[in-house]
Design goal:
Length: about 150
């Protein structure tokens, strides 16, 4: 579903760079994590498309990384070179109904749901770093194990 949005007819294709180190397996809810990754990718594509409207000469790119952060934690990051997110908006990104998108283009629930899946369900952490005009990076830290009976 994301692939068709990476290569539209009216704008340059977005390059996806994959940097995957060997990682351990984790106890998790895969469908929920897929929902998180899908939402973050769609947001990254939207941010890049918005920047391309202002700066058509950029080379649009999303970088996906996965690595063993420490023996008990995986780190997964999705970074883009889109429009970026200002500091004031970053403070509210994971709040329900907050949207950084133009009116009518976002519900403000996606990142809130991502936060719940990562933080509440998987006891992990999701953070964002961004500079307006330079893109954004969402970093997820997931424990390799969940308390007994939770996965």
């Amino acid at each position: 579903m994301v692939r068709s949005r990476l290569e539209p007819d009216d704008q340059p294709a977005i390059t996806v760079v994959k940097q995957y180190d060997p990682i351990s397996s984790i106890a998790c809810y895969p469908a929920q994590l897929n929902q998180v990754f899908f939402h973050l990718l769609v947001n990254a594509i939207d941010a890049i498309r918005s920047r391309l409207e202002q700066e058509p000469a950029i080379a649009p790119q999303i970088t996906l990384t996965a690595r063993q952060f420490d023996p008990d934690t995986l780190e997964i990051a999705i970074a883009d070179n889109g429009i970026g997110i200002n500091e004031q908006a970053q403070a509210h990104l994971f709040n329900p109904f907050f949207s950084n998108k133009p009116i009518g283009q976002g519900t403000g629930l996606g990142l809130s749901i991502c936060y719940q899946i990562i933080h509440d369900t998987h006891q992990g952490e999701i953070t964002v770093t961004s500079q307006p005009g330079q893109g954004a990076a969402f970093t997820i830290h997931l424990p390799t194990t969940l308390p007994l009976g939770e996965a």
